[in-house]
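cron nightly-structures :: item 1 of 1
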Amino acid sequence: MALVEIRDLTKRYQKGDEVITPLEGVDLDLEPGEFASLMGQSGTGKSTLLNLVAGIDRPDAGRIVVGGTEINRLSRSRLADWRAAHLGYIFQTHNLIPVLTTYENVELPLLLLPMSRAERRKRVNLALEAVGLTDRAGHYPRQLSGGQEQRVGIARAIVADPTLIVADEPTGNLDAATSEQIQELLRRLNAELGMTMLMVTHDADVAAIAGRRLRLDRGKIVEEEAEDLINYRRA
């Protein structure tokens, strides 16, 4: 059974007198432990789909089932609880809280869960170890490089051992060398920890690290082959 099941998903936006439909009748299954990347031109609805799967936005039609829960039918409060327990979100801009240390930023999602301080400490330390930042636990974001900040963001996303991790352009603000380090980290988290990931990117090289490559085209999802990525790079 698929971990993520999306059926006939449609999302519309009103812009003045115009109705914009970035997603229409989208179907998608993600298996447990799968790493899928999602590409597409600007404005095709990549981030819209990510936010729907993450329960940040609601569809106009269709259904989204994650780990057996149809999240689009949950109330606002139950959806917030579901996100806290089951979803990890990796942002492009890190979204770290400047006045909190690395440890405190990573611990933040756990404060929403019924968990002892000892269990929180254990999970934070494991997450920091997974991203190679145990020696930066007491540092503030201003004391970190851009790559280290993104690693903190990744540690925060995985600390609750979520059912699903979504990543929105996780290497978009990084230089080439740092981007490669983050790509390798994401690959390792998927391969070694079996974390299920859906990653949006505009970069064909980044998309290629995923075991499954998807593209949004005219509101529909298309499976990409290796030669399609080569052609995308040349375009």
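cron nightly-structures :: done
The mean pLDDT is 91.
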